[in-house]
Amino acid sequence: QVQPVESGGGLVQAGGSLRLSCSASTTIFSGNSMAWYRQAPGKEREWVASISSYSSTNYADSVKGRFTISRDNAKNTLYLQMNNLKPEDTAFYYCNRLFGRKTWGQGTQVTVSS
């Protein structure tokens, strides 16, 4: 299976917003719960948010109320709208299926300055 391709990261000031996108193959995306993960320098990769195939969502406490995950099933694309960004959100962000074997993409870097 081809790995997901993440985009939309960048440098933003605290309080700013970014919208991440992830294009995945049908094998990875179709009918599967999908998720965003992130990995900050020197830390383990962590789950950020997930969305089921019928768009039920869940969020880590650290991003609840600030981030919104969504999906476009026709385009095999996953999104993450990030508002009120904080310096502690600085990380590489990755998308993948929530369950099962994962092949990781390159990720997209998000840097939030204070």
Short characterization:
It contains one helix and ten strands; from the N terminus they run E-E-E-H-E-E-E-E-E-E-E. The chain has 114 residues and is mainly beta.
Describe the protein:
The protein is mainly β and 114 residues long. Helix content is 4%, strand content 46%. It contains one helix and ten strands. The strands form two sheets. It has a six-stranded mixed sheet with strand order 2-10-9-4-5-6, with no helix packed on it. A four-stranded antiparallel sheet has the order 1-3-8-7, with no helix packed on it. A hairpin with a 6-residue loop joins strand 4 and strand 5 (46-51). It starts with a strand and ends with a strand. The mean pLDDT is 96.
Supply database-style keywords.
114 residues, mainly beta, six-stranded mixed β-sheet, four-stranded antiparallel β-sheet, 4% helix
- In N-to-C order, the SSE pattern is EEEHEEEEEEE
User: Biggest β-sheet, characterized?
Assistant: 6 strands, mixed
Count of DSSP-assigned helices: 1
Strand ordering within the main sheet: 2-10-9-4-5-6
Q: Specify the structural class.
A: mainly beta
The value of Rg in angstroms is 13 Å
Instruction: Name the helicity range.
Output: under 10%
- What sort of overall outline do the alpha carbons produce when their principal axes are compared? globular
* Portion in beta strands: over 45%
Q: Residue ranges: pLDDT <50 for 5 or more in a row?
A: none
Can you give the mean pLDDT? 96
Q: How many beta-strand segments? A: 10
Distance between the termini: 39 Å
